[in-house]
Design a protein that fits this description.
InterPro entries: LanC (IPR033889), LANC-like (IPR007822)
Radius of gyration: 20 Å
CATH architecture of one domain: Alpha/alpha barrel
CATH class of one domain: Mainly Alpha
Order of helices and strands: HHHHHHHHEEHEHHEEHHHHH
Shape: globular
Structural class: mainly alpha
GO molecular function: metal ion binding
Strand content: under 5%
GO cellular component, one term: plasma membrane
Distance between the termini: 25 Å
Keywords: Metal-binding, Zinc
Protein name: Lanthionine biosynthesis cyclase LanC
Number of strands: 5
């Protein structure tokens, strides 16, 4: 596509990196001494290995493919003051071409067109010479067509559903059609919400139930609480819409109902007892202490959603849950049920969640937990195996370098803990939730 040049002008690329600054003057590294040195060494090794590797054909998407690597090389280049914009442009181009070649119809954030659109719009805010309208315009149209479908076929989640589509649309608030798209998303969330005595909940549609097995085995429906596939993604979108003044009265009612239902599942113990999902009203637990399905991700995203909403009561309650989870993180072994350092279900994602909460709240418990989980991440490094010493699930015969499940995401998390550069890329995983889209003038 014409908007994705393989290499932006070299002089401009060098100037962008020389002048790059953190998004926040208050962002400081939490790692120090030998731990910081190890984190920087590991991150630099990953970037060097990936920058020196030949370009290969891979999926076009954000989570596993070219779009995610474009995001990675731009963020890593700024944090390390190195120039990888050639790689950024090439991965964007290959992502766009890959979706075209596949005749891709998926519109989700992590596996579909919205992910490419989010990366393109996100990067164009910092690199205004990057013309992305040729890509984002068709993505807008694809989402608009999808919003006409009834019965609604998608979950409310971040990965494949409305949460992710809406997160992309929020990067396009300057476009005249975007407010209308977002209001239609509110309508879909109203139509698909199920009232209960405890509040509102959103079921997985039948085609998504296959994530957990044969749909016929779940006659009472599935209600997912994890960040990747569940309700927190929809609530985060609603919080952001409220912050932007989109259908505030309707959005507020959905937020009240959704938070109330989530709170009904916490339990009476010291630590929040959010299950992975419910089969009807029966909770199903998961041992992972992670971003994707565990309590670190659930409580952090609920706090970000309440903060964007501006609801002091739910902010306080979600923060108390998150602090309890951080205390648990200091007590528990990190590698249950698997040894993984990735962002999705591994130690790097958990570390980054706590890091974000520390910078947002200043609470020392989050800093302590973040440092602990960065140390867990570094302990999994095996130099010589995989990019920078990291392999998917620590299997030497299955090294992976993608954003969500591989070395790219691990490197970006380590750079967030070891440098003074705020990781604005992490909003695509709801590790953070900015109150407004990045403006063209922001660095």
């Amino acid at each position: 596509m014409r908007g994705f040049r393989a290499a932006p002008p070299r002089a401009q690329a060098r100037g962008l990196h020389r002048g790059a600054t953190s998004l926040s003057n208050t962002w400081k590294p939490v790692l120090s001494g030998p731990t910081r040195a190890r984190a920087l060494e590991a991150a630099e090794a990953i970037v060097q290995d990936m920058a020196g590797a030949p370009l290969v054909r891979r999926p076009p998407d954000l989570a596993k493919g070219h779009a995610g690597l474009a995001l990675f090389f731009e963020a890593a280049g700024r944090a390390l003051d190195t120039d990888h914009l050639d790689r950024v442009g090439e991965h964007l181009r290959r992502s766009a071409e890959g979706f075209l070649r596949a005749g891709q119809t998926k519109v989700g954030l992590h596996g579909g067109l919205a992910g490419l659109g989010w990366v393109a719009a996100h990067l164009s805010a910092r690199h205004p010479d990057l013309d992305v309208e040729e890509v984002c315009g068709p993505v807008d149209e694809a989402i608009a067509r999808e919003l006409e479908l009834r019965p609604w076929p998608h979950p409310c989640d971040l990965r494949a559903g409305l949460g992710g589509m809406g997160l992309y649309a929020l990067t396009r608030l300057h476009h005249p059609s975007t407010p209308g798209l977002l209001e239609r998303m509110v309508t879909v969330l109203e139509e698909t919400a199920e009232p209960t005595a405890q509040g509102l909940r959103w079921p997985l549609p039948p085609n998504s139930v296959r994530l957990y097995g044969d749909p016929q085995a779940f006659p009472r429906g599935v209600y997912t609480l994890g960040v990747a596939h569940g309700m927190p993604g929809g609530l985060a979108l609603l919080g952001a819409l409220h912050a932007h003044g989109i259908a505030r009265e309707r959005v507020g009612a959905l937020l009240e109902g959704g938070f109330a239902w989530m709170a009904s599942l916490v339990g009476s113990g010291e630590h929040p007892g959010f299950p992975h999902y419910l089969h009807g009203d029966t909770p199903v637990v998961d041992a992972r202490f992670s971003w994707c399905v565990g309590t670190p991700g659930i409580t952090a995203v609920l706090w970000w959603a309440a903060r964007a909403w501006g609801h002091a009561g739910w902010q306080d309650r979600a923060l108390a849950w998150a602090e309890a989870v951080a205390r648990e993180g200091l007590e528990r072994p990190p590698f249950v049920p698997r040894r993984s350092a990735n962002l999705c279900c591994g130690t790097a994602g958990t570390a980054l969640l706590f890091l974000r909460l520390f910078h947002a709240t200043g609470r020392p418990i989050f800093e302590e937990a973040a440092v602990r989980w960065f140390e867990h991440t570094l302990s999994l490094r095996q130099p010589g195996q995989g990019p920078g010493g990291y392999c998917f699930e620590q299997k030497p015969d299955r090294p992976d370098d993608n954003l969500q499940f591989g070395a790219a995401g691990i490197a970006l998390a380590l750079l967030a803990g070891a440098t003074g550069h705020e990781p604005d890329w992490d909003e695509c995983l709801l590790m953070s939730l900015r109150p407004r889209p990045l403006a063209k003038t922001e660095a």
